[in-house]
Design brief:
- Pfam families: GP3_package.
- InterPro entries: GP3_package (IPR032066).
- The protein is mostly helical.
- The chain has a domain at 14-100.
- The chain has six helices and no strands.
- It has helices at 14-32, 40-47, 51-60, 62-85, 90-97, 122-141.
- Helix 1 (14-32) crosses helix 2 (40-47), helix 1 packs parallel to helix 4 (62-85) and helix 3 packs across helix 4.
- The radius of gyration is 29 Å and the shape is elongated.
């Protein structure tokens, strides 16, 4: 040890302690407290901190931020895999996966009960538009058929 080096004395900082516990939570601690998937809210409870404090730690410390992202990734992976195997409720899984950017696309076909407002097929609409443009351009250019 050189003269300029200082030995750390005393208790580790609150952030350092929370980082150790956050990694513990990520690596299986969430199961120890009977959580099915890890979450930021679950981590906050595990640490005994407010969720806002957990996010503050993530903003101020890169390693803590990486741990939060790993928790989100593990949650997503568990939701996808357990959802596919049917171990998780499909509705709740779908709802939770929407927080990870997943979505269900629905195509809505607006059609009246008597069929009078049925939508025209896309191909027909495109063909009609091309025909209208072609006919209009021919008539405007003075070309005779």
């Amino acid at each position: 040890m050189t003269k300029g080096d200082k030995k750390k004395v005393g208790r580790p900082s609150e952030l350092a302690e929370c980082l150790i516990k956050a990694k513990e939570y990520l690596l299986g601690g969430f199961k120890d407290v009977e959580e099915v998937v890890p979450s930021i809210a679950g981590l906050a409870c595990y640490l005994g901190k407010a969720r806002s404090r957990v996010y503050e730690y993530g903003k101020s410390n890169e390693e803590f931020k990486d741990t939060l992202e790993a928790i989100q990734s593990l949650q997503e992976s568990l939701l996808v895999n357990k959802g596919l195997t049917g171990d998780f409720n499909a509705t709740i899984t779908k709802l939770m996966l929407s927080n990870h950017g997943y979505s269900e696309k629905q195509e809505i076909d607006h059609q009246s009960s008597d069929g009078s407002m049925s939508p025209q097929a896309k191909e027909d609409a495109i063909l009609d538009a091309i025909k209208a443009k072609y006919v209009n351009s021919k008539s405007n250019s003075g070309v005779k058929n």
